[in-house]
Design a protein that fits this description.
With 444 residues, this protein is of the alpha/beta class. The chain has 3 domains: 86 residues, no CATH class; 208 residues, Vaccinia Virus protein VP39 (Rossmann fold); 67 residues. It is 35% helix and 18% strand. The protein has 14 helices and 14 strands. The strands form 3 sheets. It has a 7-stranded mixed β-sheet with strand order 5-4-3-6-7-9-8, with helices on both faces. Strands 10-11-13-12 form a 4-stranded mixed β-sheet, with helices on one face. Strands 1-2-14 form a 3-stranded mixed β-sheet, with helices on one face. Helix 2 crosses helix 14 and helix 8 packs across helix 9. Bound molecules: S-adenosylmethionine (SAM).
């Protein structure tokens, strides 16, 4: 029976190879490359993964939990450490920060991928000529569309469809211009739902191709791969404060292995920009919020500025070389200045002269921003963001992982379910054997 089952599974279009593993007493399978491909078109197992997130968010938006009004639907926004909703004030600060990044360069046409309930759309559309939002979750799209905000078009679709005919025609309708390209493409708090680095890169490549010269691509609220262990420790300590160190170590490992979301190293974004054919500046922002939450500590934003003349280089001053009342010691009006190497007190509280991001934001001139050192997530920088260019990330060690790979974990769970159903249909009279996705690099 196993032999027959193996040969049936080997002909399934999503399977590359299948074999019986005596030790595991299971049929092991390896998915075919086309089933997990991102390009030229997403393979069926990648689509399954996108569908998984669609179902998650359709459920989230079908509840009314967290809905404070049309323009403030905070459904799903719960803290991982307490399990409770984030405070309204914290979320308003979070939204305003994202809106600030989008509107900073006064875009006229905004395209948002994964627009959700419209937290950004409600605040951005008044300052723009046209706004087009797309999202995979139907209830979010329907609700936002029904609100009929002036200049706003909303359609159901996934981020990788940003160059599709329906998005192009929505941009045309919204602007009344056949050739209108967005001068800002936004992906705020959506990359965590992407299946893998290849999908993220494909979407960003298309966004960077599409955006008008001088425009920006804003990738907001990204989960940081570089300090994922620190996040897991913080979280498990908050949830199980009485754990011993070995218990904590085991919980951290379990949490990291079970994470279903995409986490990205900040340096990846400069590498993507460096490979692109356009001239792109990459700026990495920290989250300068007042509340100490996972959003403030472990997330960051990237703003790409495309085909815009580079500003004059800024002088760089190391935080540790400043003395006395630090920022007052520098003449900040004399020439563009970046202050670097500022320890983030939330992540490295014992470092000398560490500061909280919110304290730093309050102390710097209004045109400045609190930035993140992409090579060390515990270090902040401050300065006019147009003078920050993450060149060091490209020069750095290119072998660092860009992202974790949630699609592999997803396929390990989902493919056996699909193949078990398939075998039950093809061999209805036999007992279905255990099926697992092979993790070994070679077929025995
Ligand atoms: C955390 S919400 C963020 C919503 C909005 N961008 C904001 O900042 O409020 C994530 C949204 O991304 C959508 N989403 C998930 N995967 C997507 C994909 N591949 N393409 C487009 N939208 C996606 C979800 O349906 C959800 O509405």
């Amino acid at each position: 029976m196993s032999e027959q089952a193996v040969s049936i599974l080997a002909t399934h279009p999503w399977v590359d190879t299948a074999w019986w593993d005596q030790g595991k007493r299971a049929i092991l399978v390896r998915p075919s490359a086309s089933a997990v491909a991102v390009r030229p078109v997403p393979g069926p197992l990648l689509i399954e993964h996108l569908e998984h997130w669609r179902h998650v968010y359709e459920y989230v938006y079908s509840t009314t939990e967290g809905r404070h009004g049309d323009d403030l639907d905070l459904s799903g926004w719960r803290a991982s450490d307490t399990g409770k909703p984030f405070s309204r004030d914290h979320m308003i600060e979070w939204v305003q920060h994202a809106v600030g990044l989008v509107l900073r360069d006064k875009p006229r046409v905004v395209l948002e991928l994964g627009c959700g309930s419209g937290l950004l759309a409600h605040r951005v559309h008044r300052s723009t000529r046209a706004y087009v939002g797309i999202d995979v979750a139907e209830p979010a799209v329907e609700r936002l569309r029904a609100q009929a905000l002036p200049g706003v078009r909303v359609l159901q679709g996934a981020a990788h469809e940003l160059t599709s005919a329906s998005v192009t025609s929505a941009l045309r309708e919204a602007t009344g211009d056949d050739t209108a390209a967005p001068d800002c493409v936004v992906l705020n708090s959506v990359t965590q739902c992407f299946p893998n680095e290849q999908y993220l890169t494909a979407v960003l490549d298309d966004a960077l191709d599409l955006v008008a010269a001088g425009g920006t691509v804003v990738v907001g609220d990204i989960r940081n791969l570089a300090n994922a262990s620190s996040f897991a420790r913080w979280l498990e300590t908050a949830r199980y404060p009485d754990s011993t160190e070995p218990q904590l170590t085991a919980r951290i490992a379990d949490r990291l292995a079970a994470d279903e979301e995409l986490l990205c190293d900040p340096r990846l974004f400069a590498r993507i920009a460096a490979r692109h054919h356009r001239d792109i500046r990459t700026t990495c922002y920290a989250k300068p919020f007042h509340d100490d939450t996972e959003l403030t500590r472990y997330r960051y934003d990237i703003v790409y500025t495309v085909d815009r003349p580079a500003p004059e280089p800024a002088r760089t001053i190391e935080w540790s070389t400043l003395s006395g009342y630090r920022l007052r010691a520098v003449d900040l009006t004399r020439e563009p200045t970046l202050i670097t190497g500022i320890p983030n007190a939330l992540l490295d509280p014992h470092a000398p002269d560490a500061v909280r991001p919110a304290e730093l934001a309050a102390a710097v001139p209004p045109s400045w921003a609190v930035l993140l050192d992409s090579a060390d997530g515990r270090l902040l920088a401050a300065g006019p963001p147009e003078h920050y260019h993450d060149r060091d990330a490209v020069r750095g060690n290119d072998s660092t992982a860009g992202c974790n790979n949630p699609n592999t974990t997803f396929v390990q769970r989902r493919l056996p379910e699909i193949l078990t159903d398939y075998l039950e249909r093809e061999l209805p009279t036999a007992a279905t054997p255990l099926i697992a996705v092979a993790q070994e690099p070679t077929v025995p």
